[in-house]
Design a protein that fits this description.
two-stranded antiparallel ribbon; globular; alpha+beta; seven-stranded mixed sheet
Length: about 190
Amino acid sequence: MAYPTQPAFIHTGGWGPSTRAHPALAFLEEYAASHFDQQAWNTNHFSEWHHADWHLTKADNSVVSGGHEVWTEGIPSIYGPFAGHLHDPTFLIVWETEEGYEMIGEANVFLDLGGAEEGEGGKKEKDSKGKEWDAVMPGSFHFWFARAEGGEGNTHGLVMKRTQLFADSAPVKSLMVKKGLLKKEDLGVE
């Protein structure tokens, strides 16, 4: 039985020359390194990288809509509690769409818990460049990129239109409780 297919770019591993050759992945690497993983939601306007109608679906399946709202409320509600974070990709699939590109990827998300004392749960995790972090959790991400129009976007000519996150934060929250950064009551546990 015949079925339709379309070309896709498939990459295993982290950022490198082959990922930078693809416009959507070059966009995403620069976005992550210079903007997102720098927690720039406090200093940069969302429209440099995001569509005005950007939608974020969080891991709990709640949705935040609107570029400004996602950038100033949705993303900080997920990553704001951490002193730092890094998305270190391990697997990426990208294909072209009528609007731009769609991508599904997996990454190790490294976290700096900030102010956490050594002790229980004090083991450090190393990213692919050898930097040590307080914790790591695997995550999957689904992105929709649109071609930038009317002054939107950055030098790559793309904007992020939709983002969906898949992650189990329970191990990280458990570590935060062990380190005294969260109380069980904060998690709804008595």
